[in-house]
Amino acid sequence: MKKYFTVAILLAVYSASCVGNNTDSKVGAVKAKAGGDTTGSANRTEEAIARVVKFARAHKGKKVGDGECWAFADEAYKAAGIRQSDRPGIRVWGRVVNWKKEAVRPGDILELRGAVFPNFWTKTYHTAVIVSGGEGGKFKTLEQNIYGKRYVIGHQYDLSKLSKGSVTVYRFEYN
Hints:
Elements: H1 2-14, H2 39-58, H3 69-79, E1 95-97, E2 109-117, E3 120-121, E4 125-132, E5 138-143, E6 153-158, E7 164-171
Antiparallel strand pairs: 1-7, 2-3, 2-4, 2-7, 4-5, 5-6
Helix pairs in contact: 2-3
């Protein structure tokens, strides 16, 4: 396990560039508690996610943190009071959402890995905050370090148009 974790960290640090000519090698890390909700934790989850989306919208047009894509999601989680991971280099933002079967929601986090879409691609990793969700993998995000812009801009996705690479949608939930 130790060997696997070390290799995962090294790979993440080595390949952690977002979209464009990024030379910074920092990788975001958040430890989100995933699992079933009780009524109280469901309300806490909804409130925290509302704060993530509010933070994201309030920072449109601004550079957040060091301008890295993951830093934007990381700072949104911090602003929402979502606890940070003690495991640097791991990009896990909550439970994995099967976007083909489940609607994507505002506050979900999108992770792209070597993703290729018509007129858009990512080198290795890219992170975005989903601000309006929908069925079938169609949604809007706010993100930074995309198209050479190291400040927050809006972007639309249709995951059904993915031709190469992978996408993962994460959803934070309190236990």
